[in-house]
């Protein structure tokens, strides 16, 4: 039996302990800066503890938004020593593009869950948000963010957004990226100094070769001035998770627009257009899941990633029943365990301990929980909710957990694990 009062208190201590005045770090050792989609999930939990801090979390992130609308995946803390994280601000050289006087950031992005988080944050304390002008100030920034994605990243001609680096998916080391990454010549390991292995076991992290490929892709993008051209990007993939979260956030933007007196029609149309394009291009009817699409090869990538069932978060998704069936089937088994593995349990590439190649991530579990509720699969949603809370209670607020043993892995006192735990304890359904 979970002591919910105790669990909430422990989760609260993690979130408050990782707060740095204007934003929250994912974990003090391994991730000492602000990460984009981390801040969105953190705001979802933080709103139950302090709606003001949750608002400031998102405001801080969007304060580092680029003029072209992109929201960078890392905003660097200027007081953190440069050697604390690689690749750091000196690697990305954002000042060469943005000019002096702006926050140092990376040039990559992460999945666009921010509008959904902003709407949830508003709903926690509407009076405070209205007094502060939270939504009227954030709305145009969110619109610019989505416009960047739709106008600058639609390389495939399908009306879908492409990611140009595995880090942009948020699911960095997924086996889904193995095929397009195999075309990339890695930077030799001796030419850069990883910092992640100072904080986590090598068996739980990407291999040296894969990390070298990540560095190669990032350096090429940087050296081309972060230009969004297919000719620049050797890796260009239409990812179901990124596009599903864009659709879900467009739905949230419709709610935000209505609240502030703007016209929500364009946002509602965008949800329908994205949803239809995803089903048309990415859905595999035989497997009952979504696959990523490699823009360069013109081929669907191998299935198996949990990203293929995350589109449950899209309102009105026409293939939701098929996704639920896949989620409870033998490949993910969430009807039994309640813990969504990050990769197909039956696939030979499944690795229960290695970063995004099998372990359970709490933010993905939270998204699937929301999606199940959205599509009226309430009993399964309850199973997922209880399992996530039990895992957080047993393993502590770890970055991810082994889906078979429940062993905690990766960073300790991980902020989004604590944040979604607080939200799950609150029992929010929207």
Automatic annotation (TrEMBL):
Keywords: Glycosidase, Hydrolase. InterPro entries: 6-hairpin_glycosidase_sf (IPR008928), 6hp_glycosidase-like_sf (IPR012341), Glycoside_hydrolase_63 (IPR004888), MGH1-like_GH (IPR054491). SUPFAM superfamilies: Six-hairpin glycosidases. Signal peptide: none annotated. The keyword Isomerase does not apply. One of its GO terms (molecular function) is Glc3Man9GlcNAc2 oligosaccharide glucosidase activity. Residues 31-417 form the Mannosylglycerate hydrolase MGH1-like glycoside hydrolase domain. Gene3D superfamilies: 1.50.10.10. One of its GO terms (biological process) is oligosaccharide metabolic process. Belongs to the glycosyl hydrolase 63 family. This is Mannosylglycerate hydrolase MGH1-like glycoside hydrolase domain-containing protein.
């Amino acid at each position: 039996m979970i002591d919910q009062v105790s669990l909430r208190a422990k989760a609260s201590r993690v979130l408050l302990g990782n707060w740095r005045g204007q934003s929250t770090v994912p974990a003090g050792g391994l991730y000492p800066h602000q990460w984009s989609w981390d801040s969105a999930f953190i705001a979802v939990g933080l709103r139950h503890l302090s709606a003001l801090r949750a608002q400031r979390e998102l405001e801080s992130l969007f304060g580092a938004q680029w003029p072209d609308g992109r929201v960078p995946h890392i905003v660097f803390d200027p007081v953190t020593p440069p050697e604390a994280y690689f690749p750091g601000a000196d690697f990305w050289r954002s000042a060469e593009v943005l000019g002096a006087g702006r926050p140092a950031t990376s040039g990559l992005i992460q999945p666009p869950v921010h509008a959904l988080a902003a709407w949830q944050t508003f709903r926690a304390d509407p009076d405070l948000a209205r007094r502060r002008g939270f939504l009227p100030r954030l709305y145009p920034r969110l619109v610019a963010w989505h416009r960047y994605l739709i106008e600058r990243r639609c390389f495939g001609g399908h009306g879908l957004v492409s990611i140009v680096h595995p880090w942009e998916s948020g699911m960095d080391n997924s086996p889904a990226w193995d095929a397009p990454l195999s075309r990339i010549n890695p930077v030799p390991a001796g030419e850069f100094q990883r910092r992640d292995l100072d904080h986590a076991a090598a068996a739980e992290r990407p291999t040296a070769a894969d990390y070298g490929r990540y560095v190669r892709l990032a350096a090429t993008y940087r050296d081309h001035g972060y230009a969004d051209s297919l000719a620049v990007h050797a890796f260009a993939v239409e990812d179901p998770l990124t596009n599903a979260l864009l659709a879900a956030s467009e739905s949230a933007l419709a709610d935000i627009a209505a609240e502030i007196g703007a016209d929500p029609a364009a946002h509602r149309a965008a949800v329908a257009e994205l949803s239809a394009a995803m089903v048309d291009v990415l859905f595999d009817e035989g497997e009952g899941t979504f696959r990523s699409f490699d823009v360069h090869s013109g081929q669907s990538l191998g299935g198996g990633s949990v990203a293929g069932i995350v589109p449950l978060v899209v309102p009105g998704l026409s293939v939701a029943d098929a996704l639920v069936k896949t989620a409870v089937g033998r490949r993910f088994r969430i009807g039994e365990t309640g813990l969504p593995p990050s990769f197909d349990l039956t696939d030979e590439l499944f690795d229960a301990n290695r970063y995004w190649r099998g372990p359970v991530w709490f933010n993905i579990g939270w998204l699937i929980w929301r999606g199940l509720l959205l599509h009226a699969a309430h009993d399964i949603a309850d199973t997922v909710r209880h399992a996530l809370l039990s895992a957080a209670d047993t393993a502590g607020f770890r970055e991810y957990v082994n889906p078979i043993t429940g062993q905690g892995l990766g960073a300790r006192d991980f902020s989004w694990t604590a944040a979604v735990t607080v939200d799950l304890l609150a029992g929010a359904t929207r």
